[in-house]
Structures are given as C-alpha cells and as structure tokens.
Design brief:
By secondary structure, this protein is α+β, with helices and mostly antiparallel strands. Helix content is about 20%, strand content about 30%. The chain has a five-stranded antiparallel sheet, with no helix packed on it. A four-stranded mixed sheet has the order 15-10-9-16, with helices on both faces. The longest helix is centred in the middle third of the chain and has 14 residues, at about 115-130. Residues about 1-10 have low confidence and may be disordered.
Length: about 230
C-alpha cells in the first residue's frame, strides 16, 4: 500500500510502472502534456462543455469504441457493437485548455490548427487559397455562413473532480463509468468572443470542406470536425 500525491494506490507496482505496462496511468492520474517529466500525476479537475445549461449530473451514455478510444461513437443499448469494438457506458470530459474545441455549435464544421510547426508548414498553402487571411498562433476555420450562429451560440462549461476518470493519451480524453455531479459551471453566450479571449484567430471561409480537401490533397494532417475528407 503506497501513497502517491494524496492518492491511495493499492498495488505492487507504481503508477509509472502501470503506465509502462498498459500505456496509460491508473484511474485518477495522468501524464499531463504540460509536464516535462511525463510522470503520472493526480488529475485535479476535468471539464465538459455543453449547449445544455441545466445539467445536474452526468450519467454514463452508451458508446461503441475500440481499446484505446481512437474510434468511438454513441451507440444503441440494444445493438451489438461493430466487430473489433466493445460497448461501454461512459462519461467523457477533457482538460481546461480543450474547452475551445467544444465551444462551437455541434453542426458547425471546423478545422483547427494550433501547433506552431503546423501553422508554419500549412500556412503557405492556406494563404494560396485564401490570401486575405492573417494567421495567428492558434487558428480555427469556420464556414462564413455560420458567423451569426457562433456569435449567438451559448454553451456551459462544467467542472468535475478527476479522481474517478481514466486518461487515454492516444486521444487525450478522460472517461469514467460513474455518474458525476459538477462542482461548478459557467455559461458563455458568444462562442466567437470566447474563442478570441482564449487566443484563437477565427477565420470565416466560403467552404471549410473545400479547404480541408485542398490541405489533405497537399499531404497535410489537421484536426477537423464535420469535414468529409
């Protein structure tokens, strides 16, 4: 029985040995991307953004997923999962710095480029297609027709204790099989303003789909949602 940073960890192996064996830290711990050592540390809090501002507790929902959660999606309780996947009831959450990625309306396609090297590598090709843009350190590309939708979009950020969550480093997401009551929440009423406060440059382009296909054709990899490449 060994104490690790306030957690009672009952095992013959240390959290870092557990990580070496399984590829991830034990429940309630993570190797924070913000840490240079990449040692397992206690998870403080995790966050969930939702357009619903009246959630009293998060109840696990049914997902079909593979082992490391790189493939995951909502699933019917009475259906068998696809071959090679399993079915679990889960609550998903993320780090505080992930909130901007979930602050947009769910039906608004977007491309996100935040890595310094990616901005440098993709920048010339983006500017060939859209020479009027001025890229920032963190960039998000949205369809021009969705501009008013972003400005009017309200969402609430819920804060939860992280001690019952597992961290999956392949997707950098946190999941739990238990119900969770938020310890606090904060509602934002303008997604565009929120993103700008978080250091994002919001670019409105005629077609995110067209931009995504162009960048993909050029051999670039990028984060996208609602974009069919």
């Amino acid at each position: 029985m060994i104490w690790y940073k306030g957690l009672l960890y009952v095992s013959a192996e240390s959290p870092d040995q557990h990580k070496e064996r399984t590829g991830r830290c034990p429940k309630g711990m993570h190797a924070s991307p913000m840490s240079k050592s990449q040692k397992c540390e206690k998870i403080g809090f995790v966050y969930h953004a939702s357009p619903n501002s009246n959630i009293d507790k998060f109840t696990p929902k049914t997902f079909a997923h593979n082992k490391d959660l790189t493939e995951s999606g909502r699933w019917d309780d009475d259906k068998e999962p696809p071959k090679g996947m399993k079915k679990s009831k889960l609550v998903y959450a993320g780090r505080k710095d992930h909130i901007p990625f979930y602050s947009l309306p769910r039906n608004s396609p977007r491309i996100t480029i935040t890595d310094k090297e990616d901005v440098k590598t993709m920048g010339p090709d983006i500017l060939k297609m859209h020479p009027d843009l001025k890229l920032g350190k963190k960039n998000i590309f949205v369809n021009a027709k969705d501009r008013d939708k972003l400005k009017k979009h309200s969402f609430t950020v819920y804060k939860m204790k992280g001690d019952e969550f597992h961290h999956y480093p392949q997707t950098d997401e946190y999941v739990s099989k238990k119900e969770h009551k938020p310890v606090s929440k904060k509602t934002h009423t303008d997604a565009e303003r929120f993103l700008k406060k978080k250091g994002f440059t919001v670019h409105y382009v005629p077609s995110v789909q067209r931009l995504g296909k162009y960048l993909s054709k050029k051999g670039h990899g990028f984060n996208a949602e609602g974009v069919d490449i």
